[in-house]
Design brief:
Distance between the termini: 29 Å
Order of helices and strands: EHEHHHHEE
Oligomer: single chain
Shape: elongated
Helix content: 25-40%
Length: 157
């Protein structure tokens, strides 16, 4: 994909209000402190035309955390930890990679993303799946699918 705009998301994007049909943030929010991530979602709301869609994909920390907790109480079938972060000496080190490696500074799950989008004013907010949803053709990167969660919201009229 070729981006239309490369911009520091700590500043407002240089586009008119209501000028875009969709905003796609793939593995972006986890690189921003939570307040900056909130501001980025507000910017997306400002930029979208009524009926426009915001699609967000991030590493699914909730899935990692649930699997980590389950593995502490009973053996479980291989899951995201084994698939995406194999060979780590402990599950906690694998979990820590999701939080701290690759410049991550915030963590997200589907529940938190839904609350975030609803608080920003989006409607019809719901988790989505890889390659699914209202943005077409799907912009989702296949290499990110195994550990990602997807959520979409619509800017109301």
């Amino acid at each position: 994909m070729q981006p239309d705009v490369i911009w520091d998301l700590r500043r407002p994007l240089p586009l008119p209000d209501g000028s875009v049909d969709a905003v796609f943030l793939e593995h972006v929010l986890e690189h921003l402190p939570a307040p900056v991530g909130l501001a980025a979602v507000d910017q997306a709301f400002r930029l979208l035309r009524p009926g426009g869609v915001l699609r967000i994909s991030v590493p699914d920390f909730g899935r990692y955390a649930r699997e980590y907790a389950a593995r502490k109480t009973a053996p479980t079938a291989p899951g995201v930890i084994d698939a995406v972060r194999p060979g780590r000496p402990t599950d906690l080190l694998a979990l820590a990679e999701v939080v701290y490696d690759h410049g991550h500074v915030s963590i997200w799950d589907d529940e938190t993303l839904v609350v975030l989008l609803e608080a920003a004013g989006f409607t019809d907010v719901a988790p989505s799946g890889f390659g699914a949803g209202r943005v077409g053709p799907s912009p989702d990167s296949p290499q990110r699918q195994p550990e990602s969660v997807y959520v979409e919201g619509v800017r109301p009229a």
